[in-house]
Structure formats: structure tokens, C-alpha cells
Amino acid sequence: MSEQTPTPPTVRRVDDRHRYEILVDGARAGLTAYRDRGEQRVFFHTEIDDAYAGRGLARVLVQEALTDVRAAGLRIVPVCPYVAKFLTGHEEFGDLTDRVTPETLQWLDGELGR
Q1: Looking at the 3D structure of the chain, how many domains does it have?
Q2: pLDDT(2) > 70
Q3: What is the CATH number for 31?
Q4: How high is the pLDDT of residue 1?
Q5: Is residue 73, in this structure, part of any structural domain at all?
Q6: What is the pTM of this model?
Q7: Does residue 19 have a pLDDT over 60?
């Protein structure tokens, strides 16, 4: 008898929707949303669907997203509280993290139509 090994989650960037999505067995389990401002990728929201809560998927999602930002030569602006918290424990991204400024927040509000 063989046991089926669970498929590891995958993360994909969806540029036309300005987000990264995490997929579990092909189903979207969550996302982290961003807007690009010049050389900065401004992360403003992260969520995991309730059905997938407690599996550490937000950590995987944000880790992969920030790794992608590094590969793209961009900088990180952590408006999203989860991304900001993640960064406090992951100093390997400190060299490409910019602080959130009032100007960034005003710009983001305009981008999001708030």
C-alpha cells in the first residue's frame, strides 16, 4: 500500500491582477497584493482563505514573493502588516526593504481609488 504524498503549494505572480497567489492542489488558497511604484513593489494586503488557515501558507507565499522581488531587482515596501512582521524575522531581505512613508501611503490610496 502506498500513501499519496501531498503536493507542495506553489506560488505564482499574476501581474495583471497585481498579486502573488499560493495554490494548493491547483486551487488558490491565498494571495498577497502589491502595486509597483518605480523600483519599489509596495505590498499592501495578504490573506489566506479560511479553509487553508494554520498551514503556514502565508509564510511560504510571502517568502516566495519577496524572493521574486529580489530576483527582479526591485525593492520592498511593507505596508501590509503581515509582510512587515515577516520581515522582522527575515533579515536576509533587509538590504532591499524601504520604510513606509506618508508619501507612499498617499500614493497607494490614489492607486487603489481610496
Answers
A1: 1
A2: no
A3: 3.40.630.30
A4: 47
A5: yes
A6: 0.92
A7: yes
Distance of CA 92 to the CA centre of its chain: 16
Alpha helix (H) ranges present in 11-98? 57-71, 81-88
Q: Sheet containing 27-37: which strands, arranged edge to edge?
A: 10-14, 19-24, 27-37, 40-48, 75-78
* Residue-number span of the structural domain to which 93 is assigned: 10-112
| Residue 41, beta-bridge partner list | 36, 76
Phi, psi values for residue 53, rounded to 5°? -65, 150
What tens digit of pLDDT does each residue of 40-83 get? 999 999 999 999 999 999 999 999 999 999 999 999 999 999 99
Which residue carries 508619501 as its cell? 103
Instruction: Decide if 5 is inside a domain.
Output: no
Q: How many residues does this entry show for the chain?
A: 114
